[in-house]
Design a protein that fits this description.
Layout (H helix, E strand, L loop, with lengths): L2 H17 L8 H13 L4 H8 L6 H13 L3 H16 L4 H18 L2 H17 L3 H16 L6 H20 L3 H18 L2 H17 L3 H17 L3 H17 L3 H17 L4 H16 L3 H17 L3 H17 L3 H18 L2 H33 L4 H44 L2 H16 L3 H21 L4 E3 H18 L4 E7 L9 E3 L4 H12 L6 E11 L2 E8 L4 H10 L8 H12 L8 E8 L5 E11 L2
Parallel strand pairs: 2-4
Antiparallel strand pairs: 1-3, 4-5, 5-7, 6-7
């Protein structure tokens, strides 16, 4: 976009803002302040802010100021006002317009060579892009703002606040990565700065973010304490927006604690304030949480009403995270009402949106930038140490400098190698989980399962069709849920396997007798294993052991505890045996390589890498009394800790 076109567009936007404002430009105090600042031509952000801060919420006055400063070539004042106009647009959910204003403010700051205003514009752009879930651009702008702010030697209060904003944003990016300890570290560093400058708004924001990190890790009581502390600061600064945010998240905690009545009361108490806000970002969250609370209370009419209202607002302003959450809750509602096709469609949309926001490329991109930033900080710290050594040990100057450089180089190399190892391990884990999901969501399995259910419908066996369609929907949902977590309880795993066998059994005309035996002394909920780890072994038993067998077909899954530190899981079938199965596979024209077992072994290897003991997998050929093949048994010994 050329500069002339950009200026014209900004002017049109500013006139639009002016048309909806009710402020008066003829205020003599305002005009006097504007002219005094113009005459002073101050370049300090704090001095400009002290004069213009009272007028930041009036669009007509802002337009008057931008015209005044542009006519008189006061770049610092123009950059400040353009940022204020961008904030105005952001707080009224006009995100595209906000970006245009902040980009123009950035240009003016660069021309004026004013680092403070430059940092301010970069941070404001990052905030807008974070609001619309554009993680990459948000991180780029905040990273650049942080580096520029830390390069300023004489750090004023406004510079310190900008550093706090950037640290806070880095913490939010760690939240996306689910690295909650690192996120809390950034928030606490930001909070230290906010305390030093007495910024209660910054303290309110950081307490709320720390509460979010605790909530994500299951510490609901700790999160509630931080949310209440954030609310206290918002009350002190009389922020309606802050009260809406805090009351809404406190309500969400109550929902998770199954205090549904208290949740509805506190969220409803803030609903009118949320509706009155120009920024509709938070209103969508209020509607979604209210719908969720009514859903948990089985009040489906009200639940559907509020969830759909939240969805409409989220769609209007393209709030991807809120859209995904709305569809997730609507899927739960549809399932409760027996509308399984609709539930499946909603869950699929939610899953795809979450994948778009937090896909592997975004994670790798963010991790790479974090590594660059941390490495830069490491180099800076080592350089400071070197300077101290040079001043203290002047007589041995050359020796100590050389030693320090070598040590610094080695430290950086070791650190980079260590970080690279972590990144490679993370990439390996993500690849394994993706391969696992692709394996479970095999198109042939989905197609054949639906085709089998279709046969019930064609045969007018409605009861069977509904029964198995319900099981199929639950199985698909469990597979999607399992793809988001690394481990599940053995109880959940056995439930998923029971659903899987029920679906596969349709294709065997329900000839498979599937039994599960569990020792009474075993607490299935306390035992954790990788999600969907048993499915490949059951699939092997079905399609290699039993598919070619005539007569009675049995599979028995047993869970026992033979040693204190291990749980033993065995899967035995009465099929044709491995030797006969391999012969059949060898004679097939189309060869299909199965990766399920090897993928499972890799996942188990990664699962037990920090355990005292390792896992074992044994395949045993079963024989009858005449030494003829009578089936196959696979035995897994999985360590408990």
């Amino acid at each position: 976009m050329c500069q002339l076109y950009k200026n014209v567009l900004l002017s049109i936007l500013a006139l639009f803002l002016s048309a909806i404002s009710f402020s008066q430009t003829t205020d003599s105090t305002f005009v006097k302040d504007a002219n005094a600042l113009l005459k002073l031509q101050s370049k300090e952000y704090s001095e400009i802010d002290n004069v213009l801060k009272p007028y930041k919420k009036d669009s007509i006055q802002l337009q008057y100021l931008v015209n005044l400063f542009k006519e008189n070539t006061y770049l610092e004042g123009e950059s400040y006002v353009l940022n204020a106009m961008g904030e105005y647009c952001r707080n009224t959910s006009q995100y595209d317009n906000a970006i245009l204003f902040h980009e123009e403010a950035l240009t003016k700051a660069e021309i004026a060579e004013n680092k403070q205003l430059h940092v301010k514009a970069l941070n404001m752009l990052g905030v807008v892009y974070r609001r619309i879930d554009d993680i990459r651009r948000a991180l780029d702008y905040h990273q650049e703002a942080l580096a520029l702010a830390e390069s300023i030697e004489d750090k004023t209060e406004s510079v310190k606040k900008s550093i706090a904003v950037s640290l806070n944003s880095m913490g939010n990016i760690f939240l996306v990565l689910e690295q909650y300890d690192l996120a809390v570290q950034r928030f606490e560093r930001s909070m230290e700065i906010e305390k030093s400058v007495g910024n209660k708004l910054g303290l309110a924001i950081n307490y709320h973010n720390i509460g979010y990190a605790k909530e994500a890790t299951g510490d609901l009581e700790g999160a509630l304490v931080d949310y209440i502390e954030s609310l206290k600061y918002n009350d002190e600064i009389d922020s309606d927006l802050g009260r809406v945010i805090c009351n809404n998240t406190i309500g969400r905690i109550y929902i998770k604690q199954q205090k549904y009545k208290e949740a509805i009361d506190i969220i409803l108490s803030t609903l009118e304030k949320a509706r009155g806000l120009r920024d509709k970002f938070h209103l969508s969250d209020v509607y979604i949480n209210l719908g969720w609370a009514y859903l948990e209370m089985n009040e489906y009419v009200l639940a559907k009403k509020y969830l759909n209202e939240g969805l409409e607002i989220s769609k209007e302003f393209n709030l991807k995270s809120s859209i995904a959450e709305s569809y997730d809750r609507l899927a739960m509602l549809a399932e409760q009402e027996g509308e399984y096709k609709k539930a499946f469609d909603y869950q699929k949309i939610s899953y795809e949106l979450n994948e778009e926001i937090t896909n592997e490329k975004n994670f790798k991109y963010v991790n790479d930038l974090i590594v660059k930033y941390d490495t830069k900080k490491q180099i800076e710290n080592l350089e400071k140490e070197n300077a101290t050594v040079k001043q203290t040990l002047k007589r041995n100057k050359s020796i100590w400098i050389t030693s320090s450089i070598v040590l610094a180089f080695l430290a950086i190399m070791i650190y980079i190698l260590y970080r690279q190892r972590l990144l490679n391990n993370e990439k390996k884990i993500l690849t394994l989980e993706q391969d696992m999901l692709r394996s479970q969501m095999n198109p042939h399995f989905v197609f054949n399962s639906l085709n089998s259910i279709k046969q019930y419908i064609i045969s007018n066996e409605q009861k069977n069709a509904v029964h198995y369609l319900n099981k199929f929907a639950k199985l698909i949902r469990k597979i999607l849920d399992a793809s988001r977590v690394k481990v599940v309880s053995l109880s959940d795993e056995l439930e998923t396997m029971d659903l899987y066998m029920s679906i596969e059994n349709i294709r065997f005309s329900n000839e498979i007798n599937f039994e599960v035996f569990v020792d009474e002394e075993i607490d299935l909920n306390q035992i954790k294993i990788p999600s969907l780890v048993l499915q490949p072994f059951l699939e092997n038993a079905l399609w290699h052991g039993l598919s070619s067998k005539k007569g009675e077909k049995n599979i028995k899954l047993s869970v026992t505890k033979t040693k204190n530190d291990f749980v033993t899981i065995s899967i035995a079938d009465n099929g044709i045996g491995r030797e006969a199965a391999q012969l059949i596979a060898k004679n097939k024209i189309v060869k299909r390589k199965s990766i399920g077992i090897s993928l499972t072994k890799n996942r188990l290897t990664n699962f037990v890498k920090d355990f005292k003991n390792s896992f074992t997998v044994h395949f045993m050929d079963l024989k009858d009394q005449y030494e003829n093949p009578s089936g196959t048994e696979v035995v897994l010994h999985i360590p408990l800790r």
